[in-house]
Amino acid sequence: MLDVGCDHGLLACAFASAARHVTGFDITPAMIERACQLQRERGIHNLSWQIGDVSRFPFADGSFSFAFTRHTFHRFLQPAAVLAEMVRVCAPQGRVMLVDVVLPTERAVAYDYLEKLRDPSHVPVKPNPATAPSRRPAPTIPTRAKFGTALPRSRSRLAPTRPPPP
Ligand SMILES: C[S@@+](CC[C@H](N)C(=O)[O-])C[C@H]1O[C@@H](n2cnc3c(N)ncnc32)[C@H](O)[C@@H]1O
């Protein structure tokens, strides 16, 4: 199987326990380095990595029985062309699976804000034109300062209670 935009290889390594062979494909060499490290740590042998751009896969037609990608399509400038490439490298009876986030505009703003706090390299999701705008008002985005003060309180609520010192 092919994992497009495999990042640091978390899913490719997981798929390797079920697939005959997995190829992880990504444009970022640093991600592939981390993926190799994860593969070594887990002692996986039916897995290889390839650095490249999704605009043209270096694979022959019908090379894979399963072409998969997660959380990548909203980043691509020409997603339809990438989908066509995934179909090309997939065997006629194979499967192509895309997993990504699509949100109504007013929710995308809040989602992108939180994702950016977590991962500054986050690329904003594309609003779904097929989704009717909801009647709910757009959420108020907290300022960084407000968010910062709210964080310790919610963390302490989630933290396990420590037993009192003897
Ligand atoms: C959010 S990460 C994907 C996460 C991963 N698929 C997962 O589910 O854990 C997006 C990945 O897409 C890769 N990427 C972005 N543009 C690309 C392109 N044009 N060709 C290949 N990979 C690309 C990035 O390097 C990054 O590793």
Structure description:
With 166 residues, the chain is an alpha/beta fold. The chain has 5 helices and 5 strands. α1 (10-15) links the parallel β1 (2-4) and β2. Residues 146-161 have low confidence and may be disordered. The chain binds S-adenosylmethionine.
Write a short abstract of this structure:
This protein is 36% helix and 18% strand. The protein is of the alpha/beta class and 166 residues long.
pLDDT under 50 segments (min length 5)? 146-161
What is the CATH H-level superfamily of the largest domain? Vaccinia Virus protein VP39
Strand content: 15-25%
The CATH architecture assignment of the largest domain turns out to be 3-Layer(aba) Sandwich
- Give the distance, in angstroms, between the N- and C-terminal Cα atoms: 56 Å
In the CATH hierarchy, what is the class of the largest domain? Alpha Beta
The fold-level CATH name of the largest domain is Rossmann fold
Overall SS class: alpha/beta
Specify the biggest β-sheet.
Answer: 5 strands, parallel
Lateral strand order in the biggest sheet: 3-2-1-4-5
Radius of gyration, CA atoms, in whole angstroms: 20 Å
The backbone outline, from C-alpha atoms, is: globular
Number of domains: 2
The helicity comes to 25-40%
- Number of helices, counting only DSSP H or I runs of 4 residues or more: 5
Mean pLDDT, rounded to whole units? 84
Please give the oligomerization state of what you see.
Answer: single chain
Total beta strands? 5
Element-by-element helix/strand order: EHEHEEHEHH
Bound small molecules, deduplicated: S-adenosylmethionine
